[in-house]
Amino acid sequence: MSNGKTKTDVILIGTGIMSATLGTLLKELVPEWEITVFEKLENAGEESSNEWNNAGTGHAALCELNYTVEKPDGSIDINKAIKINEQFQVSMQFWAYLVKSKLINNPQDFIMPLPHMSMVQGEKNIAFLKKRFEALSNNPLFKGMEFSDNPEKLMEWIPLIMQNRPLNDPIAATKIDSGTDVNFGALTCMLFDHLKNKNVDIKYKHSVDNIKRTSDGSWELKVRNDSGNVERHTAKFVFIGGGGGSLHLLQKSGIPEGKHIGGFPVSGIFMVCNNPEVIAQHHGKVYGKAKVGAPPMSVPHLDTRYIDNKKSLLFGPFAGFSPKFLKTGSMFDLVTSVKPNNVLTMLAAGAKEMSLTKYLIQQVMLSKEQRMEELREFIPNAKSEDWDLVVAGQRVQVIKDTAEGGKGTLQFGTEVITAADGSIAALLGASPGASTAVHVMLEIIKKCFPQHMNEWEPKIKEMISSYGVSLMENPELLHEIHTSTAETLALSEKELVYS
Length: 499
Ligand SMILES: Cc1cc2nc3c(=O)[nH]c(=O)nc-3n(C[C@H](O)[C@H](O)[C@H](O)COP(=O)(O)OP(=O)(O)OC[C@H]3O[C@@H](n4cnc5c(N)ncnc54)[C@H](O)[C@@H]3O)c2cc1C
What we know:
This protein is α+β, with helices and mostly antiparallel strands. It has 16 helices and 22 strands. The strands form 4 sheets. Strands 6, 7, 8, 14, 15, 16, 17, 18, 19 and 20 form a 10-stranded mixed sheet that branches. Strands 1, 2, 10, 11, 12, 13, 21 and 22 form an 8-stranded mixed sheet that branches. Strands 3-4 form a two-stranded antiparallel ribbon. The relative contact order is 0.18. Flavin-adenine dinucleotide binds at residues 13-19, 38-41, 46-49, 53-57, 59, 184, 207-208, 241-243, 245, 249, 268, 317, 326, 392-393, 395, 427, 430, 432-435. Belongs to the MQO family.
């Protein structure tokens, strides 16, 4: 390096779970490649990946009702649930590989076993839950799921929710014990510690301001360092893992694949319980049903969480609106993301999504007491003084033109954008998010390095034995993987320690 200039093989922008995962995968596949990471904040995992900024659900579609929709003929479509479950198994296998190879330690610092439950009220919703249970419980991926509408059984499963509830309130739940609570913030930090040991150069307080193509097809980044000076860094491959900050950087790269795409920020608020007696009465993640008009990411849930090796209880997230794209972002983020190439897409989405905008604004205006009323649908006698509000992370939902939805369609999933020559990739969107980081980063590797895939596949299969295989169709392999990941990640023993 001279005069703040470097040349490297790979640059990762951002120190969230996505860059952490891609960096770790690449270091296993090609240890000799040089990797540099730029992060504008002081530490890793401070934005969406931080444990307080997301819900920590290991999304395997065990409890999230929005992954199984009722079709017009009344049957339940479980395809999305299968896809998400299979993707989560990929993450679990990679994490188990890292622990087994001693590249990271103490899995209990980032993953804990926790029953996942879905809870609904009212006859119509109960009929839906029962049909969903019947559709899923025959599938090997969802083995062990139970359904009950018996108040005594429910009292055993969810005492805090059942106590003080009128007996004639129809209520039902499903429960599956193979769910997890994942501390993505802790995992992100562990992965960056590991990368540092592997000589990855991680530069904190370095903000990437611009990205441009050089004449030899590499990418040059303009980076503002901690002293406010500008540095130039070049790499053959760049991953834009800036979370909510990725859209602006993608636009700056000028690649055609990044055009006609917009972003819509949705903020989140959790309620956190400060009363140890209440916290001790709940054990699980209990997902409810989204209210009419609510976006899928604001489905209310009452979650046991393990943060700093302590049991906590969180409810939410309540959605809200802020024009910032990152929690530490700018009030101008939304306005400056509108460009001549995406203005029509954004306007079309604005016209289509008036009801969502109205919903989000209503959510922002809720008083603490109104939020308590929503919580009381879960805990009938919840007391206001037992609960505090915490601001969660920002999500930037992708807006793009699609064949099915037409111009300006709001997307709720994760979008990978790569240049045609595979020299740059960006990750946009936020759901199912961190849980599927390994699958999504493997997709990026496949798209951006097709010339290396034959050589890398054996190593990928060593790390993730289900790579390229449907686990649903291979119940024996699924069983083997479940048993070995549970053992390596110590997912059956910890309740003794923490309850
Ligand atoms: C309320 C909420 C609940 C969620 N719940 C879950 C859940 O239960 N389970 C789940 O799996 N997922 C969940 N998610 C999604 C999950 O948190 C995200 O998908 C994931 O953390 C995104 O990781 P990332 O690495 O892309 O981004 P981030 O973690 O946001 O990291 C991006 C990093 O890039 C840095 N950066 C940005 N711009 C620049 C720049 N120009 N220069 C240098 N650095 C830059 C930022 O400072 C940040 O550190 C939730 C998200 C939210 C907001």
